[in-house]
Amino acid sequence: MKALPVEPSVSPVAIGSRIRAARQNQRLTIEQVADATGLTKGFLSRVERDLTSPSVASLVTVCQVLSLSIGELFAAPETHLTRKGEGPRISLGGEGIVERLLTPRSERRLQILGAVIEPFGRGEAELYAVDCDVDVLHIISGELTLHMTQESYDLKAGDTLSFPGREPHSWENSSAQAVEVLWILVPAASGA
């Protein structure tokens, strides 16, 4: 079987922003990296701005100083796109609500749920809690009331309320208009 010829790419791979981010995350100055690598500040600055390509030896040295693997510089970032109305439907309870998961099911650091609550839709009759540290409710359009143990919040479009996720709460749309909201759970709630 004949191997297919592979055309080499003539466009340079942009790695400078990843090198800069690694340096800044470690709170290192270009001067400190220059001292540790033996490379000049000007050269490192040009590398970070993708104005020059370092030799393999220089790249290895910079990566060693930054405790960065060379593979990390070239790896494609893991991304997940959910288009409006296309996330999988889930149900955390309530009446008159359509909830969609906007983040990947495998994402454990946080979870974003988009919901449309029909006129007069409501959460559970009894207050409930979600298994997460922080629960954030953002109102995209409409008005919603969030009930907690000792207080209720009347929220309007553009309002954002953060509270402990394990705090018992419920919600209601007491208007004749639908409400669109985002729920952000940190970390992701188990079972959603």
Q: What descriptive keywords fit this protein?
A:
single chain, 192 residues, alpha+beta, six-stranded antiparallel β-sheet, three-stranded antiparallel β-sheet, 5 helices, 30% strand
Concise summary:
This protein is of the alpha+beta class. The chain is built from 5 helices and 9 strands. It has a 6-stranded antiparallel sheet, with no helix packed on it. A 3-stranded antiparallel sheet has the order 6-5-8, with no helix packed on it.
Q: Can you walk me through this structure?
A:
- The protein has 192 residues and is an alpha+beta fold.
- 21% of the residues lie in helices and 30% in strands.
- It has helices at 16-25, 30-37, 41-48, 56-65, 70-74, and strands at residues 89-90, 95-101, 111-122, 134-141, 143-148, 152-156, 160-164, 169-172, 179-186.
- A hairpin with a 4-residue loop joins strand 1 (89-90) and strand 2.
- The radius of gyration is 25 Å and the shape is elongated.
- The mean pLDDT is 90.
